[in-house]
Input
Amino acid sequence: MRRLSLSIAMLATTAMTAPVQAQDYPIVDAPLELSIHMHWPRAQGYGVGGDTSKIYPVEEAARAATNIHLIDETFGKNTKDSGEAMNLLIASGNMPDIVGGHLIKQPVNEFGPQGAFQPLNDLVDEHAPNIKKFWEDNPGLKEAIAAYDGNYYYIPYLPDGKYGRAYFIRQDWLDALGLEQPDTVDELYEVLTAFRNNDPNGNGMKDEVPFFARNWEEAIRLVTLWDARSSGSDTFHDFYVKDGAVVHPYAEDAYRDALANVAQWYEEGLIDPEVFTRGSSAREYLLSENLGGMTHDWFASTSGYNVALEGKVEGFNFIPFLPPASPSGRRLEEHRRIPIKPDGWAISHTNENPVETIKYMDFWFSEQGSLLANFGIEGEQYEIVDGEPVYKDSVLASGDPVNAQMWAVGSQIQRGYPQDYRYEWQWTRDSARRGIELYDQYDLLVDQFLGVAFTKDEQAIYDRHWPSIRTYMLERQQAWVLGSGDIKADWDDYVETLNDMGLQDVLEVMNAAYKRQYG
Ligand code: CA
Output
């Protein structure tokens, strides 16, 4: 049985907070049925794999604990598009008591102030001590989910854990060439140049691809190595907050200078010439063919290649290394997990038991409910060992991904609950754990832009201008990297065009909404 290391106490950011008190469940004396819409990518309905005749074991346990019974009433079961399902639900005028699932933040913030959903502020303050404590322990999150009227209308799925992606390098290639791990952007340039020129895979051919990425946006993210930014959240190309104001990274002078360097690296063959077209198979192909030298990708899945390619690529050792320092000395890991998802659940206006419902939602933030939401059933999927939930060997060694096993019993699904990083740490490989511990020794992360809720007028301005501005930004960006045009020479015209297209109007509504929401 694997044991948890002490470092998880350092890593877990949110879900480790103890509940206020042991709750006196059941919530009601006699069983109370509440109808639920639960539509998300893994299941279009509240039941095992979306089959609502198969009640989740976790639902059975929650019924036993609370006396609240959720009864499936999901709309749009024939589509995997949760937005389309939500439209059907809103149009029906016949809303279930609870509306949950994927990407509900935008619709509840649009229709909540119009009366379709119940505001939760007072309900939580008065009846949900565990959720209330979560907000107190994690300042800023309640504000981030609020609608433009200042109320909030859903309880989100709250991911735990800090790190997502990391920089990985072929340590065996460094060793073969007698090189140290690059510590600065200039050293990285030297290393990638050596990867290109000096045949680290030893086949006598100049076939190495020094930097590659499954997502071409990761080549753009290299601008962070020269003090620029590529996004403010876990969404590519997002706005970010700079000195208290919302700005866009692709309209900043730092980006002009940094992207010029990225274009130079691309021209020199340090970045995969096919980075914009190779797509999601890039990592699998370039690693298994012993061609790729460095990437920026998820800790857990990328670490898996050391096991997958053992004995297939001789000496293969692809390990996380620290973000190289920029010319100003900044070391930034721009990607991190977002603390709030737009997924979760809300109480509709037709619900005649809002107090019982919010108490039920609070149950999932209690110690008992959080264990159920994260780890499955005690004795079936996990045991408590020295006070910690520990997966049984039958789960860890089953061959099926642990997350898929959890979905099958009704844990880790898109209800509103605090995720517990102990869930993932138990099946994170040792090389990824060492990388996470390395990253944890430095202050590499920055706060994320968690989005804003627009008024109707603001939304109209944003919708009118932003999609075409974004398209133009990305077209120009790709052209510059590919060597069509020179970003420094073109910069003034580019900025003028952005302003002609309405960038300043977009930033104005962004900042008005930002100030209203976050104060
Ligand atoms: Ca070679």
